[in-house]
Amino acid sequence: MKRVVITGQGSINALGHTADATMQAMRDGRSGIGPLDVRDVDRLSIKIGGQVTGYTPEDHFTRQQIALYDRFTQFALLAANEAIAQSGLTFDGELAYEAGVVLGTAGGGLSTSDENFRTVYEEGKNRVHPFVVPRLMNNAAASHVSMVHNLMGPSFTVATACASSNHAMGQAFQMIRSGASRVMITGGSESMLCFGGIKAWEGLRVMSRDACRPFSANRNGMVQGEGAGVFVFEEYEHAKARGAEILAEVIGFAMTSDASDIVMPSKQGAARAIAGAIRDAGLNPQDVDYINAHGTGTAANDKTECAAVVDVFGRHADKLMISSTKSMHGHLIGGTGAVELLACIMALRDGIVAPTIGYEEADPECTLDVVPNVAREVTVNVALTNAFAFGGLNAVLALRKFG
Predict the structure, then answer these.
(1) What are the CA-CA distances from residue 182 to residues 102, 164, 234 (Å)?
(2) pLDDT for position 403
(3) Which of 42, 61, 245, 288 has the fewest CB atoms within 10 Å around its CB?
(4) In what order do the strands lie in the sheet with 183-190?
(5) Do 222 and 375 contact (CB within 8 A), yes or no?
């Protein structure tokens, strides 16, 4: 099997407009969650989110492009441009046919849907823009990334709710490892911070009105975010031959189904995914140093995830570091795993583990080392990143320090 490495990373989210800015905010333990600036915010019960601020589409795209690109597509393109620029790759000749893109999203062009429902139902208009369908379709971001960068290999979108990005990156990893592709652009993008998106999530009664506090006994729910994370996954020998800088190595992936409940997580399903990723990587549980948790800040998720970790790692669970960066950037739903992968790369490459901020009270059902409030400088050789979605869909990636 082929080895798979990461040679480029890009992001835009509530913590920053680049991958480096995001990682610096993670080091600082800085929150990007704040008051929402959306239409009809006064009609919402939830008025906070991890919103991308200081962003103007016209600074990055032409008027014609903006007419085609929903906000989630814009974010994906900006993150992909950054990642590909860092990798130094140009997709022409034979490589164009051996490179593709697989991205995750849950809501796709939800902002476009929201705007056009208003046009038809609220304003009473009988016509909408002819590009509504190309803007709102879930594969729009992946398609535009493929077109901008001449990626003519496998290109598609994965939609598995909050596990979408991890599933997408897992598919990219498997395609390169099997030899089906040489390079894959992968990650995820989401922009659900519009009136309709927030109102829908309000109905679930899982949202916090003030802050995201994963694993803290006084947590009171999740906070939505938006943005994108995109990476260049590359076959190792190809990267080595061209002298590429390697950020980390992807070494394992597993996915499972709870097959039990549409919203309540299962400890057994999560544990099987974690154990499967370790097994796929050829590791033992005691080899793992750090886990980037799904860590949503809801009681159901946090307790289930902690229990699953204890089941898999036994006594070694007490030696693990496990943190949730959702406490800083919010829950990007289908795009969240991609932004969280940055925390794993930072831990492996730079020896800095991002903290779980907002931690205030110990929870007797979540007694693991959650790296509370302050980043930690420590050597990390192996990291996992967890994603557990509504529908009982679980996806876990394993990464190793390179070199």
Answers:
(1) 13, 22, 6
(2) 85
(3) 42
(4) 155-158, 99-104, 183-190, 227-235, 4-13, 248-257, 393-400, 382-389, 290-292, 321-323
(5) no
Regions of the chain where pLDDT drops below 70: none
Query: How far is the C-alpha of 393 from the C-alpha of 166, rounded, in Å?
Result: 11
Residues with a known catalytic role: 162, 294, 331
Q: Token pair 């729910």 is at which residue?
A: 221
Answer whether 0.85 is exceeded by the pTM.
Answer: yes
Residue count of the chain, please give it: 403
User: Which pair of structure tokens corresponds to residue 276?
Assistant: 């499967």
Question: H or E segment at 135?
Answer: helix 132-136
| Dihedral (CA of 116, 117, 123, 126) sign | positive
Task: Extract the tokens encoding 269.
Answer: 């399903």
Burial class (CB in 10 A: 0-12, 13-18, 19+), 376: middle
List the one residue out of 108, 94, 104, 103 whose CA is nearest residue 152. 94
Structure tokens at 91: 């997709």
Question: 253: left (phi > 0), else alpha (psi -120 to 50), else beta?
Answer: beta
Q: For the residues of 337-382, what is the DSSP string, one character each?
A: HHHHHHHHHHHHHH-EEPPBTT--S-BTTB-SB--BSS-EE---SE
